[in-house]
Amino acid sequence: MVLELSPICRWCGLGPLEPRLSFSLPDEAPGVGRGPFELQACAECGTWQVNPHPGLAVIRRFFEDPRRWAPALDPNSRPVDPLRRAEERLGEYRRYAAALKAQLPERGLILDVGAGTGLMLSLLDGVPNPRLAVEPNPAAAAEAARRGLQVSGQWAEELRPPFGALAALIMNQSLDHLVRPDLFLGRALHWLAPGGLVLLSGLINPRSLAARVYGPSHRLFHPFHQVYPPPTAVRRLLAPWGLELTAVWKPYFGTPYGSWRQLLSASAAMTVRLLRPGAAGPSPAFPGSCAAYLARKTLLTRSLTFPDPNPTCSRRPVET
Ligand SMILES: [Zn+2]
Protein backbone atom coordinates (compact mmCIF):
# COMPACT_ATOMS: atom_id res chain seq x y z
CA MET A 1 0.00 0.00 0.00
CA VAL A 2 1.43 3.40 -1.05
CA LEU A 3 0.21 6.35 1.01
CA GLU A 4 1.75 9.78 1.54
CA LEU A 5 1.33 11.98 4.60
CA SER A 6 0.52 15.68 4.09
CA PRO A 7 1.35 18.03 7.00
CA ILE A 8 -0.92 20.79 5.60
CA CYS A 9 -4.47 21.14 4.31
CA ARG A 10 -4.64 20.30 0.62
CA TRP A 11 -7.53 22.73 0.13
CA CYS A 12 -6.49 25.99 1.84
CA GLY A 13 -2.76 25.27 2.39
CA LEU A 14 -3.05 25.90 6.12
CA GLY A 15 -4.21 23.66 8.95
CA PRO A 16 -3.59 22.09 11.39
CA LEU A 17 -5.24 18.81 10.43
CA GLU A 18 -7.21 17.00 13.11
CA PRO A 19 -8.35 13.36 13.05
CA ARG A 20 -12.07 12.82 12.34
CA LEU A 21 -12.67 9.15 11.55
CA SER A 22 -11.24 6.11 9.82
CA PHE A 23 -13.05 3.99 7.25
CA SER A 24 -12.49 0.77 5.36
CA LEU A 25 -13.72 -0.31 1.92
CA PRO A 26 -15.86 -3.38 1.25
CA ASP A 27 -13.50 -4.27 -1.64
CA GLU A 28 -9.85 -3.58 -2.47
CA ALA A 29 -9.11 -0.30 -4.25
CA PRO A 30 -6.25 -0.60 -6.79
CA GLY A 31 -2.88 0.18 -5.24
CA VAL A 32 -4.18 1.02 -1.75
CA GLY A 33 -6.09 -2.06 -0.55
CA ARG A 34 -9.18 -1.90 1.70
CA GLY A 35 -7.80 0.42 4.38
CA PRO A 36 -8.39 1.53 7.04
CA PHE A 37 -7.98 5.09 5.73
CA GLU A 38 -7.86 8.17 7.94
CA LEU A 39 -9.99 11.25 7.36
CA GLN A 40 -8.67 14.47 8.87
CA ALA A 41 -10.36 17.89 9.04
CA CYS A 42 -8.60 21.21 8.54
CA ALA A 43 -9.07 23.40 11.63
CA GLU A 44 -8.78 26.49 9.39
CA CYS A 45 -11.24 25.81 6.53
CA GLY A 46 -13.12 22.68 7.66
CA THR A 47 -12.18 20.58 4.61
CA TRP A 48 -11.89 16.88 5.30
CA GLN A 49 -9.19 14.94 3.50
CA VAL A 50 -7.76 11.45 3.23
CA ASN A 51 -4.42 11.61 5.01
CA PRO A 52 -2.10 9.77 4.46
CA HIS A 53 -3.31 9.85 0.85
CA PRO A 54 -2.66 7.93 -2.36
CA GLY A 55 0.15 9.70 -4.22
CA LEU A 56 0.12 10.86 -7.83
CA ALA A 57 1.35 7.53 -9.29
CA VAL A 58 -1.44 5.44 -7.70
CA ILE A 59 -4.13 7.93 -8.69
CA ARG A 60 -2.91 8.09 -12.28
CA ARG A 61 -2.70 4.30 -12.60
CA PHE A 62 -6.32 4.07 -11.44
CA PHE A 63 -7.73 6.73 -13.73
CA GLU A 64 -5.84 5.71 -16.88
CA ASP A 65 -6.93 2.06 -16.61
CA PRO A 66 -9.42 1.39 -19.47
CA ARG A 67 -11.15 -1.16 -17.18
CA ARG A 68 -12.44 1.81 -15.18
CA TRP A 69 -14.95 2.31 -17.99
CA ALA A 70 -15.88 -1.39 -18.11
CA PRO A 71 -19.04 -2.70 -16.36
CA ALA A 72 -18.55 -3.28 -12.58
CA LEU A 73 -20.49 -3.51 -9.30
CA ASP A 74 -21.61 -0.42 -7.32
CA PRO A 75 -21.50 -0.20 -3.44
CA ASN A 76 -24.85 -2.05 -3.36
CA SER A 77 -23.41 -4.90 -5.51
CA ARG A 78 -25.53 -3.89 -8.51
CA PRO A 79 -23.94 -4.11 -11.99
CA VAL A 80 -23.17 -0.70 -13.50
CA ASP A 81 -22.05 0.16 -17.02
CA PRO A 82 -20.08 3.43 -16.59
CA LEU A 83 -20.66 4.52 -20.19
CA ARG A 84 -24.42 4.18 -19.74
CA ARG A 85 -24.28 5.60 -16.21
CA ALA A 86 -22.54 8.72 -17.57
CA GLU A 87 -25.51 9.31 -19.88
CA GLU A 88 -27.87 9.11 -16.90
CA ARG A 89 -26.39 12.36 -15.62
CA LEU A 90 -27.99 14.17 -18.53
CA GLY A 91 -30.57 15.97 -16.37
CA GLU A 92 -27.88 17.26 -14.01
CA TYR A 93 -25.51 18.29 -16.80
CA ARG A 94 -28.25 20.08 -18.72
CA ARG A 95 -28.73 22.42 -15.77
CA TYR A 96 -24.99 23.19 -15.73
CA ALA A 97 -24.93 23.69 -19.50
CA ALA A 98 -27.84 26.15 -19.40
CA ALA A 99 -26.15 28.19 -16.65
CA LEU A 100 -22.81 28.17 -18.49
CA LYS A 101 -24.39 29.28 -21.78
CA ALA A 102 -26.21 32.15 -20.07
CA GLN A 103 -22.99 33.68 -18.71
CA LEU A 104 -20.26 32.50 -21.08
CA PRO A 105 -17.88 35.17 -22.44
CA GLU A 106 -18.03 35.32 -26.26
CA ARG A 107 -14.38 34.50 -26.74
CA GLY A 108 -12.01 32.02 -25.12
CA LEU A 109 -11.59 28.29 -24.81
CA ILE A 110 -13.90 26.01 -22.82
CA LEU A 111 -11.65 23.51 -21.06
CA ASP A 112 -13.23 20.42 -19.48
CA VAL A 113 -10.66 18.75 -17.21
CA GLY A 114 -11.51 15.11 -16.55
CA ALA A 115 -14.10 15.30 -19.30
CA GLY A 116 -14.96 11.58 -19.27
CA THR A 117 -17.02 10.72 -22.34
CA GLY A 118 -17.48 14.39 -23.23
CA LEU A 119 -21.17 14.54 -22.26
CA MET A 120 -20.87 17.99 -20.67
CA LEU A 121 -19.07 19.57 -23.63
CA SER A 122 -21.49 17.97 -26.08
CA LEU A 123 -24.30 19.87 -24.36
CA LEU A 124 -22.51 23.14 -25.18
CA ASP A 125 -22.98 22.58 -28.91
CA GLY A 126 -23.78 25.83 -30.66
CA VAL A 127 -21.63 28.18 -28.57
CA PRO A 128 -19.00 30.08 -30.61
CA ASN A 129 -16.16 29.13 -28.24
CA PRO A 130 -13.70 26.33 -29.07
CA ARG A 131 -13.98 23.35 -26.69
CA LEU A 132 -11.31 20.95 -25.46
CA ALA A 133 -11.97 17.72 -23.55
CA VAL A 134 -9.02 16.78 -21.31
CA GLU A 135 -9.30 13.08 -20.53
CA PRO A 136 -6.31 10.79 -19.90
CA ASN A 137 -8.34 7.57 -19.87
CA PRO A 138 -8.13 6.14 -23.42
CA ALA A 139 -11.55 4.43 -23.29
CA ALA A 140 -13.37 7.58 -22.16
CA ALA A 141 -11.30 9.79 -24.51
CA ALA A 142 -12.31 7.58 -27.46
CA GLU A 143 -15.98 8.13 -26.56
CA ALA A 144 -15.43 11.90 -26.39
CA ALA A 145 -13.70 11.83 -29.79
CA ARG A 146 -16.64 9.84 -31.21
CA ARG A 147 -18.85 12.78 -30.22
CA GLY A 148 -16.70 14.95 -32.49
CA LEU A 149 -14.90 16.73 -29.64
CA GLN A 150 -11.27 17.79 -29.67
CA VAL A 151 -9.55 15.67 -27.01
CA SER A 152 -6.27 15.95 -25.09
CA GLY A 153 -4.89 13.01 -23.09
CA GLN A 154 -2.96 15.23 -20.66
CA TRP A 155 -3.22 15.10 -16.88
CA ALA A 156 -4.59 18.14 -15.07
CA GLU A 157 -1.16 18.93 -13.61
CA GLU A 158 0.42 19.02 -17.09
CA LEU A 159 -1.93 21.64 -18.56
CA ARG A 160 -0.43 25.01 -19.50
CA PRO A 161 -3.03 27.14 -21.31
CA PRO A 162 -2.01 30.78 -21.93
CA PHE A 163 -2.78 33.33 -19.21
CA GLY A 164 -6.37 34.59 -19.51
CA ALA A 165 -7.22 32.21 -22.37
CA LEU A 166 -10.22 30.43 -20.91
CA ALA A 167 -13.88 31.39 -21.17
CA ALA A 168 -14.68 28.47 -18.86
CA LEU A 169 -12.94 25.82 -16.80
CA ILE A 170 -15.14 22.78 -16.16
CA MET A 171 -14.28 20.16 -13.54
CA ASN A 172 -17.11 17.69 -13.25
CA GLN A 173 -16.31 15.27 -10.42
CA SER A 174 -12.60 15.63 -11.04
CA LEU A 175 -11.16 18.27 -8.67
CA ASP A 176 -11.47 16.09 -5.56
CA HIS A 177 -9.46 13.34 -7.23
CA LEU A 178 -6.37 15.55 -7.60
CA VAL A 179 -3.55 15.04 -5.12
CA ARG A 180 -3.16 18.83 -4.70
CA PRO A 181 -6.42 20.55 -5.70
CA ASP A 182 -5.21 23.73 -3.99
CA LEU A 183 -2.12 24.01 -6.18
CA PHE A 184 -4.07 23.15 -9.32
CA LEU A 185 -6.72 25.81 -8.71
CA GLY A 186 -4.06 28.34 -7.77
CA ARG A 187 -2.62 27.99 -11.28
CA ALA A 188 -5.83 27.32 -13.18
CA LEU A 189 -7.67 30.41 -12.02
CA HIS A 190 -5.01 32.55 -13.74
CA TRP A 191 -6.05 30.91 -17.02
CA LEU A 192 -9.55 32.40 -16.81
CA ALA A 193 -10.33 35.50 -18.85
CA PRO A 194 -12.14 38.38 -17.09
CA GLY A 195 -15.74 37.21 -16.75
CA GLY A 196 -14.58 33.61 -17.23
CA LEU A 197 -16.47 30.82 -15.51
CA VAL A 198 -15.43 27.90 -13.35
CA LEU A 199 -17.75 24.94 -12.78
CA LEU A 200 -16.82 22.56 -9.96
CA SER A 201 -19.18 19.64 -9.47
CA GLY A 202 -19.27 16.49 -7.38
CA LEU A 203 -17.66 18.06 -4.31
CA ILE A 204 -18.65 15.92 -1.33
CA ASN A 205 -19.90 17.74 1.76
CA PRO A 206 -18.48 15.96 4.86
CA ARG A 207 -21.14 17.63 7.04
CA SER A 208 -24.15 16.49 4.98
CA LEU A 209 -26.97 14.62 6.69
CA ALA A 210 -25.96 11.26 5.17
CA ALA A 211 -22.30 11.77 6.18
CA ARG A 212 -23.30 12.64 9.75
CA VAL A 213 -25.71 9.72 10.12
CA TYR A 214 -23.49 7.07 8.53
CA GLY A 215 -20.01 8.26 9.56
CA PRO A 216 -17.41 5.72 8.39
CA SER A 217 -20.05 3.88 6.28
CA HIS A 218 -20.81 6.93 4.14
CA ARG A 219 -20.75 5.60 0.57
CA LEU A 220 -18.74 8.54 -0.77
CA PHE A 221 -15.77 8.18 1.60
CA HIS A 222 -13.11 6.64 -0.63
CA PRO A 223 -9.31 7.06 -0.80
CA PHE A 224 -9.62 8.31 -4.40
CA HIS A 225 -12.03 11.01 -3.24
CA GLN A 226 -9.17 12.84 -1.63
CA VAL A 227 -10.71 16.10 -0.38
CA TYR A 228 -14.20 16.91 1.01
CA PRO A 229 -14.70 20.69 1.14
CA PRO A 230 -17.91 21.90 2.82
CA PRO A 231 -19.65 24.83 1.05
CA THR A 232 -17.96 27.39 3.34
CA ALA A 233 -14.52 26.11 2.31
CA VAL A 234 -15.40 26.35 -1.40
CA ARG A 235 -16.46 29.98 -0.98
CA ARG A 236 -13.36 30.70 1.02
CA LEU A 237 -11.05 29.31 -1.66
CA LEU A 238 -12.75 31.07 -4.58
CA ALA A 239 -13.34 34.52 -3.08
CA PRO A 240 -9.67 35.68 -2.87
CA TRP A 241 -9.34 34.94 -6.62
CA GLY A 242 -12.20 37.34 -7.34
CA LEU A 243 -14.51 34.45 -8.16
CA GLU A 244 -18.12 35.20 -7.35
CA LEU A 245 -20.52 32.29 -6.95
CA THR A 246 -23.43 32.63 -9.37
CA ALA A 247 -25.08 29.24 -8.78
CA VAL A 248 -24.93 26.38 -6.29
CA TRP A 249 -26.64 23.05 -6.93
CA LYS A 250 -27.15 20.01 -4.75
CA PRO A 251 -27.77 17.48 -7.49
CA TYR A 252 -29.99 14.52 -6.68
CA PHE A 253 -32.92 14.42 -9.08
CA GLY A 254 -31.54 14.10 -12.59
CA THR A 255 -28.72 11.81 -11.43
CA PRO A 256 -28.67 8.00 -11.70
CA TYR A 257 -29.36 7.85 -7.96
CA GLY A 258 -32.22 10.30 -7.64
CA SER A 259 -35.91 9.52 -7.99
CA TRP A 260 -38.88 9.95 -5.66
CA ARG A 261 -38.96 6.18 -5.11
CA GLN A 262 -35.24 6.12 -4.24
CA LEU A 263 -35.68 9.12 -1.95
CA LEU A 264 -38.47 7.38 -0.05
CA SER A 265 -36.39 4.23 0.34
CA ALA A 266 -33.28 6.23 1.34
CA SER A 267 -35.26 8.18 3.96
CA ALA A 268 -36.49 4.91 5.48
CA ALA A 269 -32.92 3.54 5.54
CA MET A 270 -31.64 6.73 7.21
CA THR A 271 -34.33 6.51 9.89
CA VAL A 272 -33.42 2.88 10.63
CA ARG A 273 -29.77 3.83 10.82
CA LEU A 274 -30.50 6.65 13.26
CA LEU A 275 -32.34 4.17 15.49
CA ARG A 276 -29.61 1.50 15.13
CA PRO A 277 -26.28 3.36 14.68
CA GLY A 278 -24.22 0.15 14.54
CA ALA A 279 -26.15 -1.41 11.63
CA ALA A 280 -24.10 -2.64 8.64
CA GLY A 281 -24.25 -1.39 5.05
CA PRO A 282 -23.28 1.76 3.15
CA SER A 283 -25.31 4.96 3.20
CA PRO A 284 -27.86 5.49 0.42
CA ALA A 285 -27.49 8.31 -2.08
CA PHE A 286 -29.18 11.29 -0.45
CA PRO A 287 -29.81 14.98 -1.29
CA GLY A 288 -27.10 17.30 -0.01
CA SER A 289 -24.27 14.76 -0.10
CA CYS A 290 -22.63 16.51 -3.08
CA ALA A 291 -22.69 20.06 -4.36
CA ALA A 292 -21.78 21.83 -7.58
CA TYR A 293 -20.63 25.43 -7.84
CA LEU A 294 -20.52 27.91 -10.73
CA ALA A 295 -18.41 31.01 -10.22
CA ARG A 296 -17.49 33.98 -12.41
CA LYS A 297 -14.20 35.83 -12.39
CA THR A 298 -15.10 39.37 -11.49
CA LEU A 299 -11.63 40.88 -11.08
CA LEU A 300 -9.35 42.03 -13.89
CA THR A 301 -6.68 39.46 -14.55
CA ARG A 302 -3.99 41.86 -15.73
CA SER A 303 -1.55 43.48 -13.33
CA LEU A 304 -2.77 46.72 -11.81
CA THR A 305 0.80 48.09 -11.48
CA PHE A 306 1.11 51.18 -13.69
CA PRO A 307 4.04 53.60 -14.19
CA ASP A 308 3.80 56.44 -11.67
CA PRO A 309 2.47 59.47 -13.65
CA ASN A 310 4.01 61.95 -11.22
CA PRO A 311 7.01 60.37 -9.53
CA THR A 312 8.22 63.60 -7.93
CA CYS A 313 4.99 63.91 -5.94
CA SER A 314 5.07 60.36 -4.74
CA ARG A 315 8.66 60.73 -3.56
CA ARG A 316 8.11 64.02 -1.70
CA PRO A 317 9.60 63.76 1.76
CA VAL A 318 7.17 63.72 4.62
CA GLU A 319 7.10 67.12 6.34
CA THR A 320 7.68 67.07 10.06
ZN1 LIG B 1 -7.92 23.98 5.04
Bound molecules: zinc ion
In the CATH hierarchy, the third-tier topology of one domain is known as Rossmann fold
Helix/sheet category? alpha/beta
* Named CATH architecture of one domain: 3-Layer(aba) Sandwich
Number of helices: 10
Q: Estimate the strand proportion.
A: 15-25%
Let me know the largest β-sheet: 7 strands, mixed
N-to-C terminal Cα separation, in Å? 68 Å
Question: Care to describe what's here?
Answer:
This protein has 320 residues and is α/β, with parallel strands linked by helices. It has a domain at 70-275 and 283-297: Vaccinia Virus protein VP39 (Rossmann fold, 3-Layer(aba) Sandwich), CATH 3.40.50.150. 27% of the residues lie in helices and 22% in strands. It has helices spanning 56-64, 82-87, 90-103, 119-122, 138-146, 181-191, 209-214, 231-238, 260-275, 311-314, and strands at 17-23, 37-42, 48-50, 72-73, 79-80, 109-113, 131-134, 150-152, 166-172, 192-204, 227-228, 243-249, 290-297. The strands form three sheets. It has a seven-stranded mixed β-sheet, sandwiched between helices. The chain starts with 16 loop residues before the first strand and ends in a 6-residue tail after the last helix. The chain binds zinc ion. The site of zinc ion (ZN) has 8 residues, from loops.
